[in-house]
User: Fold these one by one.
Assistant:
Number 1:
Amino acid sequence: MLVLIALLVGAPMMIIGQELADRAQRGSRETELVRVSAGATAGAATVASELATLISRTQSISASTTIRALVQQRDERALDAWLADLLPLYAGDVRQLFVLSTTGAFIASAPRESGPSGGDFSQTDYFIGATNPWRPFVSAVYRTTFDNQPTATTIAVPVVDGHGNPLGLLCAAIDLTRAQNWLEPLTALFDDVYVVDRQGLLIFGVNGADVTPLRDLARDPNVGAARSGLAVRTEADDLFTGERRFVASAPVGTIGWTVFVGASPVQSAQRLSVLLDGLLALRLALLGLLLGGGVLLSRTTLRQQRIALADLRKLNKSKSDFVSVVSHEFRTPLTGIQGFSEMIRDEDLSTEDVKDFANDINKDAHRLSRMITELLDLDRMESGRMSQNRERVDLSALATEAVAHARPNASRHTFAMELDPALPEIWADRDRITQVLTNLISNAVKYSPDGGTITVGTERLDDAAHCWVRDQGMGIPPESIETVFERYSRLETTKTRSIQGTGLGLPIVREICQAHGGRAWADSTQGSGSTFHVTLPFDPRSAA
Amino acid sequence: MSTILFCEDDPAIHKLIRMALRNSPHDVLMAHDGAEGLAMVRAHKPTIVFSDVAMPVMDGFQLADAMHADPELAAIPIVFITASIQRADVEEATRRGALRVIGKPFTVAQLRELVAAVL
């Protein structure tokens, strides 16, 4: 009897199990390739984001007035000491900070004693890369003599004066042994994880095999393919062990590095057996479900609840972050209003001082009121509650009006118009589009404090009107070109700190454009200006 | 006469502090961020440092850490002026040996009393 039951229940299960196993085997090659490819993409994103953090930290240091003054004075000892103070900001990711002159001569470094002694750095790839034109640059990996470390890679960032003229180069040498930790989480999932620079040299790798940094891998066909811009996803012999591997690559941003990930078919087979074990477990679980009633079900519910709870916690945290940012932003103008009015009330001031302080109070009150209006606007837009009174709108005419409004507050600027007179009308909310243009033009004025020409243009771009506002101001560093559209992400550098803003102008611009089915973006060359673009779809009737 | 250093990145508050303390018998120095502040601490060895917490380049906490790391500067007391007076921030400030933590918005009277009390 028992044997009969075993046959009746067991046989179909065996058959189902075998079928699943066969399918899994057939699908495993493709699955593995997808998996290594996803691993390479994740690795490249991690390396890119870690580098971006290091670059932006180095840029914020290079923008300090202190470094500017010390480089101008060539005060080497003070610069050494100052760099030594800032080195801990990198929490160990950077081994050395050093400063080069505009001709590539060594000026100062921290730590000093282990640093390169004097000399000419004008032939290094980072000096050449960061000075033609002047921009942040990540070097290829190179052999180094200091600190008993075999290899290094350096982030070079220009130090510029108040007018954007270069004074020198701030360089941060990355500790590549620390950089390996960035990819550590991937080692549990793959057999090989390694990073190759733009010359095809191995930067670092994390795997069981002996990985010698700086090894020239340029002749490997996969490395060659990746260097020519292809994303590799194939089966190949391992570079280090000669074993068979599923290999995939992904580029790290635009710096010329590539992350490779490899998985051995043997390991895949093991994973397959884990999968089969999983199937067995599933079968047992089904049996358990039948026997044990709702136990498993309640467990699933519990897990879902846990996930929901985690989501809620995340939401709550982002709400708290938001409240803390907003309260911070509000308290600053409040301090001015409270303090200056207090002095007017309690002190015997000259009429001149009273007027001066009243002006400060007025400015802060306006700033506060603008922040509240914009915050409410943004909230309405993001929750889709913004009312829209759409009508046919002549974008070129609105741009002309917006410029006329801005002129009185921009005595140092000249305005140029490049308007398309034949531009079809758009279908839009007039007040909102005015808000977009006003925000963009007032930003152009604010972020070019030395004056210059502000160009406002319109043109046809496929089915939409394209409008741009160009200034000749300080520009935006490449890593901030997207984040300027985020709330409260005002560019904070020594040059922008005297510029007041609510940090909400550009997020509002983007929201309005998106609500109209258009887009908003920026491009910029640091030191020579920015251009902000918006597109807004034509009125379907007038575009025809 | 004592020397007081203020580190604060907002230009309006800069002016407020300068105006509030313009008749003070002390030397009042102003820095725009933590890094500039640290350079001024080294150069002038102030009697006390008042520092904002959220600043570009180097924040107030990092400034405090850098001062503590230097035996010559470790003894200089620090007062944090911060717009976020949540408990975690105050605890963080206290952990860094802050003499006081005052929240924004502060009044001119509070500022003057504090300066008088700590000097």
Number 2:
Amino acid sequence: MPVYGQTDAAETARADREAVREAQSDPAEVALVDRMRAGDEGALATLYDRWSDRVHALAVHLLRDARDAEDIVEETFWQAWRGAARYDAARGTVGTWLLTICRSRALDRLRARRRRPEDTSIDDAPPAEDPHGDPMAAMVTSETGRLVRAALAELPAEQRQAVELAYFKGLSQSEIAEKTGQPLGTIKTRVRLAMVKLRDTLGVLRESPL
Amino acid sequence: MTSPRTHDQVREDLGAYALDALAPDERVAVDAHLATCQACRDELRAMNEAAAALSTVAPARPMDPIRKAAVRQRLLERARTDNSGVRPIRSAAIPARAAALPWWIAAAASVAFVVAMYQRGVVQREREDVRAALAAESVRVVQLRDSLADRERMLLALSGADVKVVDLVANNRRPNARMFWAQATNTWTMFAHDLPTPPAGRTYQLWLITRDGQRISAGTFAPDPTGNAVVSAQYALAPDALGTIAVTDEPAGGVPQPTGEIVIAGQPR
């Protein structure tokens, strides 16, 4: 419901607080993983209802294929079910865990595609950010997305490229060095600086008073 | 042998670690340090969150509601089977491309769609009815696709070069069964015949018994009214580890170890 008379700054602050909540551990979600560990299928259903769209968005973004993305969504939640005992809240939120599983499975599939020469090379796929593509591309999934996009836009182009090749294409630092023709040490520096910047962006949000 | 890294060296690698962009030996070195350094574990958590946050720039792509519901249903079925102690056979993905559909399924969906379009112009109530029917028809299409995929998978599980066949028989009685063990995929498919309906509170339970005496439950089942049953399970077993396959009569819900009478049993040839 709109609040009339709210300033732009107040609106931005509200959005930032929303982003903070997204970045922090949600005890209710940790409890869902605990219940899955105990074999509670209802907890799996609830986690799926909460996260399947986000997981699907990432899978489509990485794979550019609806059928493959759907497979990855199913495999992500299945792996979460089977591996609930291995979830460690100290290493990240439940959402981070699910998205990490999704990315890992999707990148496995991308690598398998690379080994099949008859398939389209991932290099032929649209770039990770394609503002001129599908109109939906203009939408980001959350306020965190808006902030991360802004943080990425502020990075020097070569740092942004390095981190995008690593995250969205699954390339190692050595592979990025080979692909870009830059020394490995240079790539390591770019990745490090970019990740510190992203970490600080989220860190500042967490430290802001709610 | 990887030389130990200093705290500062590891710290510099944590961003790449979170992106899974380190070389394997670098990753091992970071893991070794993380095991002893709380500060680096805290920093890694922040880096993990930063890496996962990159996913949020992916444009929203909501799943088709029917397909989303179908995936949800499959996951829950797999979880239920998992809870019952039998590793489920993974359901095939729903084919996304219309060209992959048999013509009669595509035709059925098309007819339902045309009907829905016609009804839209009549009255609101009828439109809602047709919409519900269309949704039900779409679910049925998905189920038919799954069913076809299941049959294709079963054919593979019965006919591959790696399939070992074990006959299960009873002593002077009619029940019998044949187990097809597809070793490449660890898939077990048993067809049983002439099984009497178990009395109330009882069930049949399938066991894989290894040469060294380990008794592995492959699930409980009941025959249909004609005495037939098809049981599928997935379990990894070394090619020469199988000693006996048996079906026993057990209390409803099954038991961790066999306690009842052996109904049929067989050994690999």
Number 3:
Amino acid sequence: MEYSSSGGREKLTASRFEGLLQRLHPDREKAAEKYEFLRWQLMKFFQWNGCTPGEELVDETLDRVAVILEDRGVEEVGSFAWGVARNIKREAQKRALKVVRIPDLGESERSHIKTEDPNTTIGDDIERERRLKCLHLCMRYMSEDDRRAFVIYHHECDRPSEVRKRLSLELGISSTTLKVRMNRLRRKLQECVNKCCQKRLAR
Amino acid sequence: MVVKPAIRELMRRYLLGDVSEQERTELEERYASDPHVFEELIDAENELVDLYLRGRLADHERARFESHYLNTREGREAAAFGRSLAGYISADDQKPLLENYRRSRTTTTRKLFFARPAFGMAAAAAIILIVVGAWNLIETNRNLRRQIQELQQAQLSLSRQNQDLLQQLARTKSGTPFSDTHGTEPNSHLPGENASVLQVTLLADFVRGGAPQNKVKIPRNITSVSFRMNLKAADYVAYDARVETPEGAQVWQGKGLHPRTSSGERKSIYIDIPATALQDGHFILNLSGTKADGSTQDVNSYSFHVTRR
């Protein structure tokens, strides 16, 4: 089941956004970090609950929080934002029940398993080629060390946990730190690839 | 953060939409409040996508992945990205890097020592600690062995001294006036190399004029002989003692002697006679008592034979 967001809502003004950042942390840099992390968490929350498009629902959540913060004293902004997100999720699920969804992608694009699919369209191949090129491009933005670690971490092998343990030893960090670092690199890389693809598609 | 397999399994089911409402709510509350749980969930998601793309999910999981996870645009984008990533890593471009890594795995330990100073220093410090600890143990052990040897020597020395003393005691016993059959008490002073007083308990004569049953052997180093005469009853206020030869020549005399309690309730008279006064031969000690009215009476006589050695 896929859920969609509602339309008309109060837009986030610059002053409201500033107010939200201020409430997250007095230091602007740390506030921006907190904002980014909260946004990522909320994106995933909506995705894992099948609510889409997640980006719009996150915007809606943060807009509502910013508006409320103007009028009301909220003790912990993070927890409050999660409460608002849960309400928006319920609203999106209710709305989705009233909508008959037309699948936006064909069956061939849904399955990503490495099997020969006779129904693969030329468009799919072009899209995959575009993604791979963008990936090569985005990998160049990584440092040499990060790229090496990223490839070793993700390569297919019989004992990935052993490889990762050795890698963390070699880098002088804990396995948990290595895991978090690699997952964040993966997220940035995916964002980079998505942006790159959108740009190329727009040409 | 170490995540229990059960939590990891719950995360996987959550991502596949295969959890109860309660499980969903609980997990969401946890990752909303704990960034570590959220990071773990991200890791579980990446792992799930990679396993799906490698065709390593069980049938029912693969079915759920396609019906639930790929049902959102974000899920499909993640899967598309994962597929590109797998293509990138398995491409020929990356083979030299992975080959190098596989080769370097055998020398990782060496690298850790030489390429990472902190690790090397920590390892060196650990080795030094082990060596110092082992050295201390060896030294302690050596000291303990030395102490044991010293104690054994001291014990041996004491044992020898004890034997010497026993021998001296035996020698002294053979020099006492009474043999065991006389039921004499042991001498309170053991005449060793430096001893100067010989203590002797005399038994009263049963038959006046008979052969002396008290034999006194006086070693050369003895300067004084302390005689003890046990009394049946202390009926007198004072006692006089007189030592003389059988011919009646006085050797020594003591007056106004008072009995002392020796063992238990027993009263005894003690007299000290210079050893020089007692040469080889027979002697008779006469003990007399003075009553309260001033009259005197013979109490006992003690004859003894002296042998100088």
Number 4:
Amino acid sequence: MSTLEPATLSVRLFDGVHPIANRARLRIASVQAELVQGECGTSYGLEELSVSPRIGLAPRFITLPEGRQLQCADHPWLDRLPQQEKTERFVAWLEQRWSVALGAVAQCLRTSRRGDRGHR
Amino acid sequence: MSDEAGPSGKADEESAEQADGAARLSFRFTGATAEYFRIWIVNLCLTLFTAGVFSAWAKVRKKRYLYSHTLLGRTPFQYLGRPLPVLKGRMVAAVLGVTWYVVTNLVPEFSWLVALAAFGLAPWAIARSVAFTARYSAYRNLTFCSRSTYGGVAGTLYGWSLVTLATCGLAYPCLRQRLTRYLVSHTEFGGVPARFRASVGQYIGSYFVAGLLVGGPLGIFVVSFAADKHAPSVEGLQIVFVAVYLLYFVAFAYLRAKITNLVWNGTELGPLRFVCTLSARSLLWIYFTNTLAVFASAGLLIPWATIRTMRYRAKQFAVHLTGDLREFAGSDCSTVQAAGAEVGEFFDLDVAL
């Protein structure tokens, strides 16, 4: 796996108590992430974070150990963090490719034609 | 610290418009047909490859896409359902479905037992289905929560079903209103229960117009056939048959638009008021063209139909914030198993809130 440069993500923070968004930044480096809100910063080990599955170009959510949540745009760093649904990584990879989608169309049409012939 | 909610927690200043002293938050659906098509077809193919087992993952991924592209203000909704509980729920539903099939086809003399079980199961399926959807729908890190119980749903459903039977179906709008009122008023967000204000009279009005849409032309057909001394021709009956279907389609779109508007415009959630302005004519056009497109494309345009329907619905929907978002605070709802939701779906038991 290639190494990634430390990055700063612009995030919206939800505390899980009130449905109110606060702007913050998340600095991610090789072993730690730091959530910066104004002058205050809180550090987390990368293994403490958990990221929602990728689904198209939708925003993703990072859950912090104390239950707070961050909303941010997709970023390569997010794939390096612990995933909430490990099984969906491969499916998300397939869904991003037109070649796979066209192959799936061909396969579905073939299956349905075979089904039609079976009925006759 | 940059607080988007402002010191009073009123609303995201960048996404709210002021209207009559209340902040108006618009719904937006940002999904794209091409992107959703890839998700839909890949998941359909994987479901076929795995003899249906993957359908639980497919359901979750599609729901996640639709939720995460539905934005209120600038924040998307989140679908938190996970594939494995959905799969377990589907297995329970499949066992019940097979039991129903076997009993009704192989030992029909015991069909009444299945009917009795389904009768007893219906309130459970409705309550659990609503609870599951609520629990796994989140907005800004707070989940919704349903406190509907078997007893509560059973009382409303059985009581008003008896009244509906006794009135030859005339009390059906009352049944729908009471059931929706029960389910909505037992739903919470951030510890705040919703209130439901749509009246029985409004429901009766909508169902009456829908009844006229189908019954009026049908009555004219029947009277004209009765007045004709000759026996109706096969072609004539075919025309009536097609016309009845078209009328049903019109009534369906009309009711869907009117009841959805009634439910949302009659619902309040703490400082939130909902405004839903679906037009029966637009919805009819969308459903009609969707049906044609899906048939003509052998189903391949289902994602296009889904996205355009979602886009229309989001465009006609808004929320007025009349107070402080800090009224909502955490929720203690426990995890709800998926079986109820899956059983409801398998047996086409949609309470259509």
